[in-house]
Amino acid sequence: MQPLVSVIVPTKNSEAFLEKCLVSVREQSYPDVEVIVVDNFSSDGTPEIAKKYTRKFYQKGPERSSQRNYGAKMSKGKYVVFFDSDMELSKKVVKECVEVISSDKKMGGVIIPEISVGEGFWAKCKALERECYIGDETIEAARFFDKKIFDNFDGYDEEIAGGGEDWDLPLRVRKSGYKIARIESLIKHNEGKLSLWESMRKKFYYAKTIRKYMKKPPDVARKQFTLFRPAFLRNWRKLIGNPVSSFGMFFMKVCEFGSGGVGLIVGKVKK
Question: What is the pLDDT of residue 225?
């Protein structure tokens, strides 16, 4: 009997992508997997889709961090892994994660590389950006953990939302002396028909709560929250080879950076 892996998926109005996500979990080559969906009170068909694939369907809010932590609380696995509802897993993701994390007692978490797919010009720009981040541990974050280690670190910080919580937990794990590994199998992040406005709106919303994270590891945060990240310089050949998408990507980054800056100000004023 192999150790059970608890796959936890937070959702909110996720009917457009959730089924593909859960099918990809069901089709994993690793046999011992339980699926836990924690929904933030969706107003669409998300609950009905989720219940087709798991009996472990719960509702919890107000943000993704609290949903993830609740899912972990309700889990039975030796390991926990967290996927967003718009992600699709290649078939060996869970198997490779188990092999890596079980190979060393000091292994605290596993990074699963991620690529973007989607429709339209802005989705192509986002896909190019994410390609540049593969192998960059200041941007990629572990999402697969030993359950005991996850619990020892109290899971995700529920006062941080929108990406900062993804970085915060692995940083705390690593600073305590645990290793963070990575696998080769990929996750596909489905951006759908991404618009520039939607991307800016997300950055504005997330930035309102990111200040707490930025104060925790200021040296790391300075590298993460810059307009032109070192990953772009390392991948200059890729960018030169895609001049139109590269121009669009940098224009998108400028717009996101601006909307994120406004969100930081709004968050500080509200606080």
Answer: 73
Using CA atoms, how far residue 218 sits from 10, 168, 175, 224, in Å, is 28, 12, 14, 10
pLDDT tens column, 11-52: 999 999 999 999 999 999 999 999 999 999 999 999 999 999
Contact 169, 153 (CB under 8 A): yes
More confident residue, 253 or 217: 253
Collapsing DSSP states into helix, strand and coil, what is residue 88? strand
Q: Is 197 helix (H, G, I), strand (E, B) or coil?
A: helix
The whole-angstrom separation of Cα 218 and Cα 239 is 29
**Class in CATH terms, 5-193:** alpha beta
Three-class SS state of 117: strand
For residue 2 the two structure tokens come to 């192999």
CA distances from 265 to 160, 258, 261 (A): 16, 11, 6
How many Cβ atoms are within 10 Å of 234's Cβ, its own excluded?
A: 12
Give the whole-angstrom CA distance, residue 147 versus residue 155: 9
d(C-alpha 158, C-alpha 66), whole Å: 6
For residue 218, what pLDDT is reported?
A: 66
Alpha helical stretches, state H, the chain: 18-26, 46-51, 64-73, 93-101, 121-133, 147-152, 164-175, 196-207, 211-215, 218-224, 230-234, 236-240, 243-270
Domains of the chain, by residue range, sit at 5-193
Cα(51)–Cα(53) distance, integer angstroms: 5
CA 229 to the chain's CA centroid: 19
Measured between alpha carbons, how far apart are the two ends of the chain, in Å? 50
DSSP 8: E
